[in-house]
Amino acid sequence: MATARIRLERVLAALLPSTDIVEERVIDVEPPAWCERRQWTGFLLGLDEAALGACEADGLAAHLPSLPGAPADLVALGQEVTKACRLPVIDGQQVVLPERLRAVPRRKQAQLSALLGAMRPLAMRAERIVDVGSGSGHLTRLSAEIFGRRTLGLERDASRVAVAVRRLAAEPYPQLATRYLTVDADRDALLLDRSDLAVGLHACGALGDRLVEAVGDAGCDLALVSCCLQKRSEPVRLPLARAARSLVLRRDVLGLTNLTAQPMGVEARIETTMRAREARYALGRLLATRGVACEPGAEMHGINRRRAAAGLEAIARRALALRGLSPPTALELRDHEREARTRYAVVRRLSLPRSMLARLVETAVSLDRGAYLEERDHQVVVATIFERAVTPRNVAVFASRSLPALVP
Question: Which of 62, 202, 225, 243 is most buried, by CB atoms within 10 Å?
Fold first, then answer.
């Protein structure tokens, strides 16, 4: 199996020449500079509705070889991205969860079951399991029950810690040594011991980096699935590994990793997602005519993003009220909806190459973390662990200094 460093080198070979693409977001109908330089604009704007829908559902790279007139360099980039993002798949034996967890959402149950199964070899050799970003504590309690180990849940949100403590008191296994602490990884040290297994199930943003660094310092084992890489206070993410010293990513570029090409997302079909994005685009244009300038995404400040799926009117009234402005008129709504249908169709087409690089950026960050631990004398496996239908944030990093088989 290739090391994390070798895989990282392959990813960087595809990503670094495309840095200008990931750093310039398509926000309106004007073609971005990277698209004009590469002479891709005509091809992208010429895609019909069927081709556009297929590329958004499956990813541009999947269809480029069969699309008439596709630029050769764009086809080649798609092939490089596909190869670089191909990771091993962990298909270990999943753990059967206790019946009392039936109230937990099915997708969360699937994640818990798969991660517990994959981390078993590491858990059985650990003296303590430390769940970093433990939330309401499901993984912490299950680790204690299934593996018979002391467990510690670390969570920044004190209210979630309180929920975890209450749930622990109701567990049928009160004899197990499980504790929860309120810890902010941005301020507080993660005090890990060499005999620990540190676990992070969807450790968001900077927390994943803090955890990896703490594991490297302690020399302990790790099972990490990251998420929402853009959730960090600093404007850029600096690389951890020496092998990734050129991988400096802005926060907005890290946000690109939340994009996932699949016909049926975790919450809605791709068609519903695109209608919601069109409504948000229309809202931005409406606010601009009212004298409110917004960065992309800021138009929904204070509004649940899921409401955009109901169309412009559903979000425009709330957005204007939050800014102390009068409600939208029927004419405003009609005009901006009509304009958005035309203009956002252009944005969708021009955005395809950048969206194609989303998984590449996500993979690069996970491999940077893995390569950093290799530099600290860990054995590392970076692999996918969940089906995308469960969650598209499914890249895991397993690391240990002295275990022959990291995962099943």
Answer: 225
